[in-house]
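To illustrate this point, what follows is a protein record of this kind.

___
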Amino acid sequence: MQRRIHGAELDFDEWRELARTDPREFERRRTEVLQSFIEETPPHHRERLRRLQWRIDMERRLHWRSPLVAAQRLYAMMMESAVGRDGLLPA
């Protein structure tokens, strides 16, 4: 399954296989794509996106033994920013 995201062609199956067979290369490429995306955003959004990506990376690093726990933590973080205090949506 291929998807185009900000000009980059991303193939989910290829990325899944890369994560399974070469985690270091997967992380290198993931970081490269994310940095490219951030650099393509308007300048006034970049710092916020860098900080958000740092938080995401820290949660993933902290819970590296359990990807499910990391995903749950990231979901909670997303919901807090969407509907929590000062969230984007009304509660």
Observations:
- The two ends are 35 Å apart (CA to CA).
- The helical segments are 12-21, 23-40, 43-62, 67-83.
- The longest strand covers residues 2-5.
- Strands lie at 2-5, 8-11.
